[in-house]
From TrEMBL:
<dbReference type="InterPro" id="IPR052365">
    <property type="entry name" value="THEM4/THEM5_acyl-CoA_thioest"/>
</dbReference>
<dbReference type="GO" id="GO:0016790">
    <property type="term" value="F:thiolester hydrolase activity"/>
</dbReference>
<dbReference type="GO" id="GO:0016020">
    <property type="term" value="C:membrane"/>
</dbReference>
<keyword id="KW-0378">Hydrolase</keyword>
<dbReference type="GO" id="GO:0005737">
    <property type="term" value="C:cytoplasm"/>
</dbReference>
<keyword id="KW-1003">Cell membrane</keyword>
<keyword id="KW-0443">Lipid metabolism</keyword>
<feature type="domain" description="Thioesterase">
    <location>
        <begin position="52"/>
        <end position="131"/>
    </location>
</feature>
<keyword id="KW-0053">Apoptosis</keyword>
<dbReference type="GO" id="GO:0006631">
    <property type="term" value="P:fatty acid metabolic process"/>
</dbReference>
<dbReference type="InterPro" id="IPR029069">
    <property type="entry name" value="HotDog_dom_sf"/>
</dbReference>
<keyword id="KW-0963">Cytoplasm</keyword>
<keyword id="KW-0472">Membrane</keyword>
<comment type="similarity">
    <text>Belongs to the THEM4/THEM5 thioesterase family.</text>
</comment>
<protein>
    <recommendedName>
        <fullName>Acyl-coenzyme A thioesterase THEM4</fullName>
        <ecNumber>3.1.2.2</ecNumber>
    </recommendedName>
</protein>
<dbReference type="Pfam" id="PF03061">
    <property type="entry name" value="4HBT"/>
</dbReference>
<keyword id="KW-0966">Cell projection</keyword>
Length: 157
């Protein structure tokens, strides 16, 4: 199935978390499953916090890009638009909050499941569960904001 991130233009597909053109990045892929958005990612042994457990910064990074991608997809869906349609709507992180509920075992794939909590103007609030070995080990809340056309001097292509 095509992922949200497959629709980012080449020129802006370098994000460390979700850009398919960043060979050093996570290159996450996110899709709809009904009303939820889902990303699966398998941490490597070097993503260790303490032996056997996933580094919290990686978890935050996955929540971040899962949620900004979800925000974009939610806005397209709300406006009844195809994901690749023009003009593009891209989202950046306004705020990123993560509650680490339990240690996250470094043991196979993590599943991130996002819910759209609110869409208001250019803002989308996304809540994301991080699931490891069938248990929710972290929960994130992201305020994603539709990128202004002049963001950091970059073009919102
Ligand atoms: C990453 C570079 C990309 C460059 C090229 C872009 C191409 C993109 C293409 C494809 C995307 C792929 C990339 C995904 C990115 C992955 C995630 C990241 O790492 S993003 C990087 C980290 N984030 C930033 O660097 C944002 C820096 N901040 C800003 O630029 C501004 O502060 C911004 C855009 C977030 C908001 O500024 P305003 O002036 O446009 O909008 P206002 O009016 O302040 O806020 C709109 C609504 O959002 C809420 N809001 C804004 N910031 C908030 C915050 N910190 N906490 C809570 N709410 C916040 C406000 O309260 C308001 O909501 P109410 O209408 O009042 O309900």
């Amino acid at each position: 199935m095509e992922a949200f991130q497959d629709h980012y233009d080449d020129a802006v597909a370098h994000c460390y978390g979700c850009g398919r053109n960043n060979e050093h990045g996570h290159q996450i892929k996110t899709c709809w499953e009904g009303e939820e958005t889902v990303t699966r990612f398998t941490p490597e042994p070097y993503h260790t916090a303490i032996p056997g457990f996933v580094y919290g910064g990686l978890i935050a990074s996955l929540v971040d890009c899962h949620s900004t991608g979800s925000a974009a997809a939610a806005m397209y869906r709300q406006q009844n638009r195809e994901l690749g349609s023009q003009p593009p709507m891209r989202f950046v992180t306004g705020s990123l909050h993560v509650d680490y509920l339990k240690p996250t075992p470094l043991d196979g794939a993590l599943e991130l499941r996002g819910r759209i909590v609110e869409i208001k103007g250019r803002k989308v609030v996304v809540e994301t569960d991080v699931i490891a070995c069938g248990e929710v080990t972290a929960r994130g809340r992201v305020v994603a904001v539709q990128m202004p056309a002049d963001f950091g001097g970059a073009k919102a292509a």
